[in-house]
Amino acid sequence: MDPTKRARVEAWLQYADELGFSPFNRDRASKSGETAAVPQPQAEVQSSAQPQMMAAAAAPRRVPAPSAVPSARQASAPSAAPVLPASPGFSLFDAAERVPDDTLPRIREDIGECTRCKLHTGRTKIVFGVGNPKAELVFVGEGPGHDEDIQGEPFVGRAGKLLTQMIEAMGLQRADVYICNVVKCRPPENRLPERDEIATCSPFLLRQIDAIRPKVICCLGACAAQTLLQTTQGISRFRGEWMDFRGTKLIATYHPAYLLRNPPAKSEVWKDLQKVMAVLGLQPKRK
Ligand code: SF4
To answer: What is this structure's pTM?
Structure first.
């Protein structure tokens, strides 16, 4: 293996151990017949490693929207889809190698009846994700709410209905896109997922994105955006700007639940979605 690549992978594995990704690595290893890693107690996950990592990468990587140089993967994209170069610098997700020939069913199988983090104690159903496994557009939310927990499907409550309306306004159907969350089990009382829970569950999100290989990732709300961009900055600092996530265009906008509380913000979200539509060559739905 290339020495630079090896060093980055080794650094990632060390981070993974510190952050409590060991159960994830263990299960991947057991699938391939390798020696299983020793699971780390959850208490260790709440160490200072995650804040240090987040602080080290506190500023998300902005990318120029229209005039960037095409990458190898996106060289064949239509001119309407500006190509975004990856910025140099270490990133936990950047260093994570893709699982060869990974598929959504395989990822779901690996999750199993997961007890890797404490969210498993209060869930009814694991909410894995739903939609087109070859979607060009992936929406990432934060975590399941009450309705999602009962039904096992993301974004099916009031906020979900609004998201469906937003998708249809873009000229798409819900089945055309893929919808998932950072954590797959409902946080109690709909609180935000905690750092250790995000650290434990987000490798599955990473694999979902890698398996789908969308053209655009749209983060719904701060949790999803901060997780994928590894930043502590507030979403208002970069909402509506094109960012880079492992060579894929990423844009963050407000969560539909926020729009239910603040309807005037819908116009801002619509502007963000229009940017996505421009990249994907979509026409708005005729009324
Ligand atoms: Fe497992 Fe993720 Fe559920 Fe935690 S939130 S128990 S890591 S599936």
So the answer is: 0.73
